[in-house]
Amino acid sequence: MDRTRVAVLGAGIIGAACARELALAGLDVTLLDRGGAGAATTSHGEGNVLVSDKGPGPELRLAQLSRRLWPEVLAAVAERSRAGRRAVEAAEWHPKGGIVVATTDAGARGLTEFSAAQRSTGVRAEELTADALRTAEPFVTAAHTAAVHYPEDAQVQPAGAAAALLTDACAAGAALRTGEEVLAGVVRGGRLTGVRTRDGLLEADLFVDAAGPWSGVLSARLGAPVAVAPRRGDVLVTTPLPPTVFHKVYDADYVGAVGSSEEELQTAAVVESTAAGSVLIGSSRRRAGFDDRLRPEALSAVAAKALRLFPSLAGVPVMRAYGGFRPYVPDHLPIIGADPRLPGLWHATGHEGAGIGLSVGTARLLRQLVLGEPTGVGSHAFRVDRPAVLAAPAPRQQEQPAASRRQEPQEAHEAQDPQEQGQEER
Amino acid sequence: MTRRHVAVTGAGPAGLAAACAALAAGARVTLIDSAEQPGGQYHRMPPEASAGHPGGLRHGRDAFLRRRSRVLTHPRCTWLPETSVWALERTGPADGPPGAGSGAPPRVHLLCGGPADGSGRTRRTLDADALVLATGAHDRVLPFPGWELPGVCTAGAAQALVKGERLVVGDRVVVAGTGPFLLAVAASLLEAGAGVREVLEAGTFPTVGRNWLSRPWELAAQLGKTAELAGSAAALVRHRVPYRLGRTVVEARGDGRVEEVVTARLRPDWSVVDGTERTVPVDALCVGHGFSPRLELPLAAGCALRDTPAGAGAGPFVVVDGEQRTSVPGVFAAGEITGVAGAPAARVEGAVAGWTAAGGDHAVPALRVLRRSRDEGRAFARRLARAHPIGAGWPGWLRQDTVVCRCEETDYGTLCAAFGDAAQAAPRVARLSTRAGLGPCQARVCGPTVAELRARLGAGPAGHGTAAEPPGHTPHRRPLAQPLRLGELAAAPVPFGSPEETPDRSGGPKPPGAADRTTPSGPVAESPEAPSSPTDPSDPTDQR
């Protein structure tokens, strides 16, 4: 066996996309997950494939690459196998377009400037008149001050999209192993050569950290910590409705909330329908570690913001809520590339709330970097050895015995500088 | 010293007894139920009913009405009818065990002033010193071809129609499934004037008989329950309705409505004995395979659960100690969520929970009596579970096109395909791709079934999950315990404020100074009923 052996750690959508690209490139890929494939962050999001929420810069270029790749990738998956064709149907790819609505004058000014900047980089961003908005979204509030249509925005059923990529990865020869958690790394001659799980040792030539919000914990176990921390989000799901929301509609505050680094609760309305007729309503952002407890006031704030956009939804029953953890990096950029501290370790993580959309572009970029091919988009901004990623010590959560953690006074955390606090999730 | 405030969610037999005992122990009580009247599923009655009416439908109605009136008119009781608990909010450190820190129970989030599917309700919050969860159970039904046809209903629904609306479900009814509840339902149907063709118990004689007939002296302790069963059995005999063991309905057929059922003999593992199929014309079919505890709120509170062995009842159930404490400080559990044993056992558990939650004296002799009675109830629950296990062979009744999730019409073949594919076998991923469990009932009906199928199809144990999906909890985890309207959710909640505040919808008059009138001098002095004699001896006709 002289093929390069790759172990992708994490079988969420990022891991699935990376496994697929690397397997298609002829590498011998094993995909490992501590739980089930796509069971964590991937299946707890809304399935955003967005260009609209990113300002000009490296992440927008990655988003544009991903948006171009999505239809190609799904077509290729459907082509390769019958299972792939079924999986692509279940991915519910829907290029429905996004509409950003401002409801204040300040919001309107911000949105106008933001979309103008995006247009300069090739994003299609069309200002809508009041009449055009009413035609596009008949139930949206009349009290809006500006609206911009982004025809490139799309939506997928995220777990289905991940399953489609994974099905194709397996069709291309990748092996999936679930229920195996990485406990430690094995370093020989300064190089990561293996990972230990409860089931034994897995050796490979290179390892890809695709553990999403658990990357902080995983990378610390491997001895090369990166500053990825969970940022909690909540989504409300209504009972199925007759067609009411036709695009991905969100308020202009959303971009601000995405870009903020606040620890406390941030909310912005993101409203969209699913193929089944339910309306998904997001979103909240809160950094509180892996705290999975329901916070009614977060759901209430999300509901209130959504009603500002769609007042007529007030009587609609919400039948469930779900929450997930986004992989948060203090500078809001993903981490893609080789870890210079530990040869053999690569990262593809830290996409915060954009991982579904950015997965296929990330995987393409990673493949190009691994194989030494020229990259289509710049990778410098996503490099591992940048201050926001390396500045802080390893996340201590789950790495220390509970007793010693409790002894630490609360104030000690609060006294740290903001950047470091980002890693100190409690 | 301030009085302890005990919140009780659920006003069925367990919750009402908890409220009663907590009042007797001197606490303030807030009793919460989504229905207009206390009583739960068990004491369901038509809205206009205000007093007992003749016949066996009474189920100890008079004793229940006395207890109800004692609780609702008590000056220290606040009764919140038509109030849903939609969430429990845990505070305290995120990484500690649930309830660590303050020792206070989670905050209760309520929707007041309307039924569970209501609208325009007021959002309120309640912080109590102790919380008693008495949320009960709903009936469990296993799927089989045709079970989604109109005219097929759960045994519980049939009984609710008879009890609550006095509707007769049919003239040629077959009652099938497992458990003594089938007898009770058949008896209720007969009494209401329905024609029952036969009652089919899927359990075979060795399983059912051995467990019911062993250690009969223990049954004597559950006299009420045993007498009730005997009464139901006698009703069957009187109406010449056959009761068959080891036989069940494996298919329902009909054009737009059930017209006939196929019954078949079963082996002890519930696999079908080929060649024993019989076709029976019917106009209604009632099925029930035991009960599913309603675990949303215990899970939201962070209570530890215990798994039951595969097939033994519809667990998991809430873990409680000798005083009905759950693993979460300040949170108590009583009734069917701790193990299915019927109303008398639920009442005793409720009384122990309410008394302890209120800070009642541990040394009172009455409590010892109650505990012994509670232990007998638990033994009865174990007997029930042993006598009526779900046989492992039931998936053999399914065909590829048999609907498993009725809300989303997901069939067995679709689930097999999902669970056979590692790319989508994780519970949440499969749920999103097959849509099983995403409909209006939120997997309350199909959740345990899907989890069991998943385990059997080799996609890992039912609870195999990640941090985001704790092991074993998946089918019962519903962060929103009840649906609510977006507008209701968006409104800021009104807290039930100071300890002495009287909420709008309280029952019974509150004379000035009433709260100070009674001094907790002991359960017997305070109330003749709880906990000194919580199981009313005049109440022998309890079902389930």
Q: Count the helices of chain A. How many?
A: 14
Strand content of chain A: 15-25%
Going by CATH, the homologous superfamily of the largest domain in chain A would be FAD/NAD(P)-binding domain
Number of strands of chain B: 24
**What is CATH's topology name of the largest domain in chain A?**
FAD/NAD(P)-binding domain
CATH topology-level fold name of the largest domain in chain B = FAD/NAD(P)-binding domain
* Content of β-strand of chain B: 15-25%
- Strand arrangement within the widest β-sheet of chain B reads 3-2-1-7-20
Number of helical stretches of at least 4 residues of chain B: 16
How many strand segments of chain A? Answer: 19
User: Per CATH, which architecture of the largest domain in chain A?
Assistant: 3-Layer(bba) Sandwich
Pfam families (chain B): Pyr_redox_2
Protein name (chain B): Thioredoxin reductase
InterPro entries (chain B): BFD-like_2Fe2S-bd_dom_sf (IPR041854), FAD/NAD-bd_sf (IPR036188), FAD/NAD-binding_dom (IPR023753), Metab_Enz_Cyan_OpOx_G3PDH (IPR051691), Opine_Oxase_asu/HCN_bsu (IPR017224)
Keywords (chain B): Oxidoreductase, Signal
Which keywords apply here?
heterodimer; A: alpha/beta; FAD/NAD(P)-binding domain; D-Amino Acid Oxidase, Chain A, domain 2; 3 domains; globular; B: 544 residues; alpha/beta; 5-stranded parallel β-sheet; 18% strand
